[in-house]
Amino acid sequence: MFEQWHPLLATHIYRVTQSRPLTEEIVQDVFLKIWNNRETLGDIRHFWSWLLVISRNHALNALQRKAREYKHWEQWVKDNATEANSIDPTHSFYTLIDEAIDQLSPRQKEIYLLHRHERMTYQQIAVHLNIGRETVKTHLESATRAISKHVKLQLAVTMTAIHLLL
User: Fold this and answer.
1) If you ran DSSP here, which 8-state letter would residue 118 be given?
2) Which of 39, 33, 13 is nearest to 24 (CA)?
3) CA triplet 86, 90, 91: central angle to 5 degrees?
4) Residues 6+ apart with CB under 8 A from 9
5) Is 151 exposed, middle or buried (0-12, 13-18, 19+ CB in 10 A)?
6) CA 80 – CA 65 distance, rounded (Å)
7) What is the SS3 assignment for 69-108?
8) Given this model, what pLDDT does residue 87 score?
9) Nearest to residue 23, comparing CAs of 34, 13, 8, 33?
10) Which long-range contacts (CB under 8 A, 24 or more apart) does 41-50 make?
11) Residues 8 and 72 placed together within one structural domain of the fold
12) Fewer CB within 10 Å, N side or C side of the chain?
């Protein structure tokens, strides 16, 4: 049944949604509904008409759900945007880096800031803090990895949220 009706159903739903991922989701939902109601399928006289109606209803419900999610997202952005620069992607990126720096250990944070903001060399930091040059190098490598990991994770979460909204 799936192989017979899937192409026609997918084409029909795509005309409504104009979205391949949403179309596939709806087709799966429709076939799940067919499976769950398989005992009553014998009572249906015009299967294709019935299939078109339930698929159209599922598609419209999905579009309404996506529209509600988008409105919630828009409201969230509006509520959380305090200034025009909070929407600036560069500002957001630097905010992510600042958050990551704040999560470093005190020693890593100190060494990272001396190197990145004060532009001190490994040797200058080592003399300034009375530690070995290799210790400075190790702390900077760990700090850079931690910052990269934090930024990548936050970007992945953001991209996932955007993908779900589309």
Assistant:
1) S
2) 13
3) 35
4) 27, 30, 51, 55
5) middle
6) 22
7) HHHHHHHHHHHHCCCHHHCCHHHHHHHHHHHHHHCCCHHH
8) 47
9) 13
10) 48/8
11) yes
12) C
Say whether both 61 and 94 belong to one domain: no
CATH number at residue 65: 1.10.1740
Range of the structural domain that residue 100 is part of: 84-165
* 36/11 same-domain check: yes
Same structural domain, 54 and 117: no
**pLDDT tens, position by position, 83-136:** 444 445 555 777 888 888 999 999 999 999 999 888 999 999 999 999 999 999
The alpha carbon of residue 88 and the mean position of all alpha carbons in its chain are separated, in whole angstroms, by 18
